[in-house]
């Protein structure tokens, strides 16, 4: 039979009941093959068997979704046996799901699910055609009177607008929190986080564009302008949302964490809840970047939640910005968790942050 | 500088102004590297230069989106320089966009865009958690009185429910047709096409599951049941749709083409327009599969549009089913186009088929 003449396909990844994972790659010619696992400090060396299949079995991994990719003699390889991937604008990787004995908030289960709506529009501010995604919670009904608060949720550098749903599972996490009564039903808006899209088009031999200060500033400024002047008006016209500042939150990861702080703290009239997960890309001259802290009251700010993994190299700048913000008489909720600069940290950040939102009646101001 | 010590990233794919495309892969150790291009008859051999970069430049390609992947000594490789991919449950590939001098209907342009809504639900009929996608046209307003006709649009074997939007660009094609006044504004519903999901889980050394007759039958039956009893009721409750049979169409590609014929022709009370693009997977005993043709009037069928590429190996079975349906006194619109079993054919099929829908006032019955 024709299909029997092919070498047997390799099984990869193989997730064992105890959470160990075996990765396999058939590559008889390669001299050295490694697998890089999201959250791992170093790539793991794989061993070749007599049939040319490289493999390695990890120790037991905590239940989660892990990105991974292979490297064979310098060549970046996706796993040909796995069609689950993480979308990304700079480099793709595969995903392996390690299930737990009970579902994690990001697992697909048989509970009521909200919807994810994809909008496409032309941004006059940035000058491109782009998307944003909107999550509406279970039971949302555009023809009913109920209105919802809104979380603007921003992805990181190299993600696209689908990052928080495709990789971050924000929709599943909220479905789960809402189902358990842990978070208020809310709408989540996930825009494209680039005000200067060329920042994700590195050129061969040139310095990384994100290290260009002017480009980064333009990226932040135009992103903020597009969010406030293009995305928010469409959301507030198209969905049943509350539009008072107590009903708006903004949060994001990495570059999106910086954008949340820059947008939120400079628009205290618009956002009462701010979250930054492993924020990155802020300059060091905080006073210049947050001019509104001097001139405008932040008494209406209910939550300023700044989280970072202790093994993330951004822990130091995050501690610095927290210290500076405290010196500006803001009440910061600093969160340090285990972990590196990974989606495992950010999914847990969202699961911890979302329950705190839109509780103004119970909460005190984050501004002293 | 650290980033200068890495080998320069290779540019791939490079699309030239005349439509030629250069593919490149750095793989110094490989002995033979080929690139398979969607719609190509054979993989193209690539040549290695002294720096270990393999490359080939194609002839001029017609403006389109082309899937491609590399093979290096038997190893299936995605292009590490390209993060555009085609989602697929069996094997991933990259995508290269060859633009034309004027936009194709599937290109992103600055015209009014509809929305794509992702629904997640538990299927009691199939026994899994699954998605379906709904396109609403520009100007759709769930709070207004306007109602829309609905096209149920089905993907092929190995695609997931996102296939028709992510790869087929059905939303962009309809945006374009509607913008030019060529198609009636309509809603498109894109469900997951598997009634027996194990049909997309081939086992090593076993025959391909799609060749298993009983499994294929169960796949078709439960798909149809889930569509009619689970998806359609949610659509008709959640969206402003007309629910008379003149306002419902069903069409699909390959496996989804067979499903469109099986569902549409066996439910003449529900669908007045049927399309099959490169249909595959029908058995040969047509009389058994289409029992309603003998017992029920098909006088209300306005369009039975059956298309196939002339270079598709399914052209013969498609001609056979067309011949048989004509013998059953149905008026078939047979369409033969250039092309193989590819998305280039199916995107053009949709662009040709959608303008014919929901024109009952102008059209005659497809039943003589």
How does this model look, in words?
The structure is a homodimer of 368-residue chains. Chain A is an alpha/beta fold. In chain A, the strands form three sheets. An eight-stranded mixed sheet of chain A has the order 11-12-14-13-15-16-17-18, with helices on both faces. In chain A, strands 3, 4, 7, 8, 9 and 10 form a six-stranded antiparallel sheet that branches. Chain A has two domains: 2-98, Immunoglobulin-like (Sandwich); 115-356, 3-Layer(aba) Sandwich (Rossmann fold). Chain A is built from eight helices and 18 strands. Chain A starts with 13 loop residues before the first strand and ends in a 15-residue tail after the last helix. Mean pLDDT of chain A is 94; it is low at 1-5. Chains A and B meet through β8 and β11 of A and β8 and β11 of B.
Assigned CATH architecture of the largest domain in chain A: 3-Layer(aba) Sandwich
- Domain module count of chain A: 2
Compute the separation of the termini of chain A in Å: 76 Å
**Oligomerization status of the protein chains:** homodimer
Question: What are the salient characteristics of this protein?
Answer:
six-stranded antiparallel β-sheet; 23% helix; homodimer; 2 domains; Rossmann fold; 8 helices; 368 residues; alpha/beta; Immunoglobulin-like; globular
Q: What's a concise summary of this model?
A:
Chain A is an alpha/beta fold.
